Amino acid sequence: MRTDLSGERLDELDLIAVEVIRNKLEGIANEMQFSLLRSAFSPIVKEGLDASASLFTIEGETLSQSISIPIHLGTLIPIVNKILECHPIESLADGDIFIMNEPYLGGTHLPDIAIMTPVFFEEHLLGFSAAMVHHQDVGGMTPGSVPTNATEIFQEGIRIPPLKLASEGEVDNQLLDLIKQNVRLPNIFLGDLNSQIAACNLGKRRLSELCETYDYNFLLKVFASLLDRSEAMTRDALMKIPDGSYSYSDFLDNDGVEINEQIEIAIKAIVKNGDITFDFSGTSSQVKGPFNCVPSGSLSAACYAIRVLTGSEIPTNGGCFRPISLKLPEGSIVNPTEPAPVNARTSTIKRISGCMVSAFREVLPEKIPADPASEMLILQFGGKHRNGNHFVVGELIASGSGAGVQSDGVDVIETDASNCMNLPVEALELEAPIRVHHFCLRPDSGGAGQSRGGLGVSREYEILEGEIKFTHRGERHYCSARGYNGGHAGAKSFSKISRSSGNEEVIPSKLVTDLCKGDRVLIQTAGGGGYGDPRARTKDLVEADILDNKIHKETAMKIYKYTNS
């Protein structure tokens, strides 16, 4: 039996019904996410969890999000709006499917491909279902499509503007064939794309099913009410932050091309009357290498930052993001001019989001920890098996988070606007002729303090056969995560190649090279910054760290002034 409440005013809505619908919407988004991860073909999705799903209103605002990756979730907003700009609502039909990855039209980088489908109830448009997946390969100059030495976007893979992949349920196979012809792993690409379509169709089905219980017009009012309520709660939280200007800056190691030049990310956050503006006027100009970040990336960082600053008790939807404004100087690293390369934008977005949050550390000391390492080390291995079949496998290796006022940082965890997982050793070894010799916490990598920074990780790979094209995209090799209030900086990252010939090569943060049988790669990710004077750390905590091999005894004696007595 359907409930007809279409005549109610927004302030008279049944609050129980509204809350039931809100939880249902969140459940739908997460069910879409689970479907994505269960049905994907590539390890980077099914093991690395590099995928996301959302529902959107008719107006193109976020209705609900899965628990997944902020970069994806934020970027889906301009993608959905660009698709609607190119394909107006009046032209849409049930069964239409749209595809897009173009960064200069609202996307993020080329491997992140978005799928969107409209949701109808009878002849009425109810909303949109969307999913984004990081595809293992979309062409370009290196396997995995994240070349750190790219100097223009044309080297990074196939570019897909907002196109209709299916009309009323009929897939455009010519378009699909064109895309498949430009990727190294067409079958895996198609498998992951189908997982996206299935997830969107699931969201479409579940959202339309709400109309079997609730009146269509009532649902639209509830959707609007949910966004308005989150906006009001967000503005109330921002009003508790003193009006003013808050600044922070940090650095990326280099752009992958000009190895000796650091990149500055400078943020000025202006809070006034429940609004927040992020001004990037002091940020570096766009760079030659692929660390440029199109505006959608800064938006994603801002969406993440505002949720950190305002509190998790506020339901996440498009209303949370209405107070945000961005000032992005044209020709800067946060608003590059086409055809600047952009494939490594994750590192930039993570540093942006870290600066956005850290700017408020003085006024929100209980909420904002010391700097996280914010390193998501990207490794790509590509080559051929003995049978001639291509393989491409990517690694996403985390680092340590910053220490809080009363808590140690978390070891080996994604922070800021990313939320992926490393590949299990077994998954990697199944995909490529590679053996992992060790995988463990990196002792002494967390910044010392009354609260210790989170540790990074150590991992070593050996090439078992053939020749492999290897891409290494690291950070924090030269710029440590800073401690706070007397806490020490976290350890820097370190990576090296030990050649079968006996030669050793230290990797300068970014590298594209060839590996051969017998070569080994050692990676050690950075640690988070510490909080407070290390000498104030309790002896029990220091001893526990020694026993857990998180710090060496010599370190404890030197920095923490530990004694056996």
Distance between the termini: 74 Å
Radius of gyration: 24 Å
Helix content class? 25-40%
Largest sheet: 7 strands, antiparallel
Tally of individual helices:
11
Strand content: 15-25%
Taking pLDDT < 50 over at least 5 consecutive residues as the criterion, the unreliable ranges are 4-10
Shape label = globular
Provide the domain count. 2
> How are the strands of the biggest sheet laid out side by side?
2-1-5-4-3-6-7
Mean pLDDT: 95
- Count the beta strands: 20
Description:
The chain has eleven helices and 20 strands. The radius of gyration is 24 Å and the shape is globular. The chain has helices at residues 15-39, 43-46, 70-86, 173-180, 186-209, 216-239, 295-310, 345-358, 425-431, 539-547, 553-559; strands at 51-56, 62-65, 97-100, 112-121, 124-134, 163-167, 170-171, 244-252, 263-272, 275-279, 324-327, 377-384, 390-397, 434-441, 457-463, 467-473, 494-498, 504-506, 510-516, 520-524. The protein is α+β, with helices and mostly antiparallel strands. Strand 17 and strand 18 form a beta hairpin. Residues 4-10 have low confidence and may be disordered. The longest helix is centred in the N-terminal third of the chain and has 25 residues, at 15-39. The strands form four sheets. Strands 2-1-5-4-3-6-7 form a seven-stranded antiparallel beta sheet, with helices on both faces. Helix 6 (216-239) crosses helix 7 (295-310) and helix 7 (295-310) runs parallel beside helix 8. It has two domains: 10-231, no CATH class; 373-565, no CATH class.
